[in-house]
């Protein structure tokens, strides 16, 4: 198995492992590559690169604080790195280590996805750090008409301006209250989750309705800056696209294969929402496990069947009897769409939720989906006292359960990220396994 890694310090919150590992699985390369996050302190960098050279790793991403320092250990730097002055991706070419930077491609592709072209546009780059350099390089490559670098510390902006001195694009520097232009790009960390979340990088009255507002911060996807811009009717672009495309270009370099970008995007969004959905046949323990799981993780718990009853203002039994199963399934789909907007929630779904592919697709995109199973005998035993199940009103319950399981088992498997057999197991051990496997899944 070839190892890939992102190195940095701190590295705990990196979304790269979940993004790359999900995509590698989707590409059928889950057995060939694994992507890890590794905390590498400054004095450990040289040793890590030596390990990479010796074959411990197949390739790597590099993040704060090593993007500049790592350049000196490379055998070759790409033209983009020579100009940007920072490496975010290392790959091997004929045994040599190549330092590359994919941030600038990620940035331009994410704009293109949103129909934004930088050619002949006036752009303000807010911030003058490492990411700003990659973005200015991208803007020059893309043929921007002018670039204003607006930064807290003027000298840092001047240094970048001099580095990128350019014939065709006019570059100037200014303060944070001087921004203007067709496109405003925030490259500072202001707005990112944590202490800086409520801060905008510029006074919000500088945002006029005709501009495109771009934020390269991706957590949260809608920063204070983007919300203010949206309020003024501006087009907005979040940092998620850049994160995904810079990752996709790196993965293409390491694997030599085309990367399914949508899978990467889904993996990032799923990880950021951090929902867990429990699916499976009735009697497999979804509600009991769900309550206990939500409790252990300090999350909200949602029972989809309860929400359906609230919406219809009658019991499920009554909905089946008076309105029919089809009506029930319609209500169920509407509720699933709603709950998929949630974050940090444990969602217990009804047994037939997978009958509608749209439900499965939404759940898979927005939650880590755990399929709970149990043997037919165990299900029969657990439901022996329960007469409220409309689908089990029949002469031979065992036959009926087998029939329904036959119809649904493939649909369950298709929807699930992992499967856990709950027969003969205690709740605590099931909850522990879900938490453990969810961690490892990334
Ligand atoms: P960096 O090199 O540390 O640069 C930070 C810049 O932000 C500097 O210009 C700094 O101004 C400015 N700044 C920091 N704190 C500020 C404050 N309180 N008020 C005003 N300005 C402030 O960081 P970086 O590597 O460029 O990364 C910046 C952000 O981009 C991070 O949040 C990172 O996660 C994000 N990023 C996203 C992607 C993506 O794929 N979406 C890729 C790369 C980076 P001074 O010059 O005055 O210090």
Task: Give a written overview of the molecule.
The chain has helices spanning 16-26, 45-53, 79-84, 103-113, 130-141, 154-163, 224-231, 240-255, 261-273, 286-297, 304-312, 316-323, 325-339, 357-366, 376-382, 397-415, 427-441, and strands at residues 2-8, 33-39, 59-62, 76-77, 89-93, 96-100, 122-126, 146-150, 170-174, 183-186, 212-215, 235-237, 275-279, 300-303, 345-348, 367-373, 418-421. The model has no long low-confidence stretch (mean pLDDT 94). The chain has a six-stranded mixed β-sheet. A six-stranded parallel β-sheet has the order 9-8-7-10-11-12, sandwiched between helices. It is of the alpha/beta class and 442 residues long. The protein has three domains: 2-99 and 249-269, Leucine Dehydrogenase, chain A, domain 1 (Rossmann fold, 3-Layer(aba) Sandwich); 105-238, Rossmann fold; 274-441, Rossmann fold (3-Layer(aba) Sandwich). The two termini are 16 Å apart. It binds NADP nicotinamide-adenine-dinucleotide phosphate (NAP). Residues 64, 103, 106, 127-132, 151-153, 156, 187-190, 192, 216-218, 239, 242-243, 246 line the site of NADP nicotinamide-adenine-dinucleotide phosphate (NAP). Residues 64, 103, 106, 127-132, 151-153, 156, 187-190, 192, 216-218, 239, 242-243, 246 line the site of NADP nicotinamide-adenine-dinucleotide phosphate.
């Amino acid at each position: 198995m070839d190892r890939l890694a992102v190195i940095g310090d701190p590295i705990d919150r990196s979304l790269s492992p979940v993004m790359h590992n999900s995509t590698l699985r989707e590409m059928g390369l889950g057995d060939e590559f694994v992507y890890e996050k590794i905390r590498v302190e400054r004095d450990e960098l040289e040793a890590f690169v030596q390990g990479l050279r010796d074959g411990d790793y197949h390739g790597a991403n590099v993040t704060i604080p090593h993007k500049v320092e790592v350049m000196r250990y490379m055998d070759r730097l790409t033209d983009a790195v020579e100009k940007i002055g920072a490496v975010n991706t290392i790959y091997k070419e004929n045994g040599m280590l190549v330092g590359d930077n994919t941030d600038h491609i990620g940035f331009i592709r994410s704009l293109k996805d949103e129909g934004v072209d930088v050619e002949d546009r006036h752009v303000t780059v807010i911030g003058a750090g490492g990411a700003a350099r990659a973005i200015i390089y991208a803007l020059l490559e893309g043929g921007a008409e002018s670039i204003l670098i607006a930064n807290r510390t003027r000298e840092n902006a001047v240094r970048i301006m001099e580095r990128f001195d350019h014939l065709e694009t006019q570059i100037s520097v200014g303060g944070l209250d001087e921004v203007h232009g067709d496109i405003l790009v925030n490259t500072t960390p202001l707005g990112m989750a944590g202490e800086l979340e409520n801060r905008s990088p510029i006074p919000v009255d500088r945002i006029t309705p005709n501009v495109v507002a771009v934020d390269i911060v991706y957590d949260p996807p809608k920063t204070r800056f983007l919300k203010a811009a949206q309020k003024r009717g501006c087009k907005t672009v979040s940092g998620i696209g850049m994160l995904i495309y810079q990752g996709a270009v790196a993965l293409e370099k390491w694997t030599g294969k085309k990367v399914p970008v949508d899978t990467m995007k889904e993996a990032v969004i799923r990880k950021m929402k951090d929902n867990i959905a429990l699916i499976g046949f009735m009697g497999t323990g979804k509600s009991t496990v769900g309550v206990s799981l939500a409790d252990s993780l300090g999350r909200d718990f949602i029972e989809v069947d309860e929400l359906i009853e609230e919406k219809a203002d009658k019991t499920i039994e009554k909905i089946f009897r008076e309105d029919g199963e089809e009506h029930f399934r319609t209500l169920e789909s509407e509720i699933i769409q709603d709950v998929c907007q949630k974050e940090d929630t444990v969602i217990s779904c009804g047994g037939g939720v997978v009958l509608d592919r749209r439900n499965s697709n939404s759940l898979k995109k927005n939650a880590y989906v755990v399929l709970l199973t149990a043997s037919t005998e165990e299900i029969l035993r657990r439901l022996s006292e329960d007469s409220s199940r409309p689908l089990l009103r029949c002469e031979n319950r065992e036959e009926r359960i087998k029939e329904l399981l036959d119809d649904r088992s493939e649909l369950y498997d298709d929807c699930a990220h992992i499967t856990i057999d709950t027969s003969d197991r205690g709740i605590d051990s099931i909850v522990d396994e879900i938490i453990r496997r969810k961690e490892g899944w990334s």
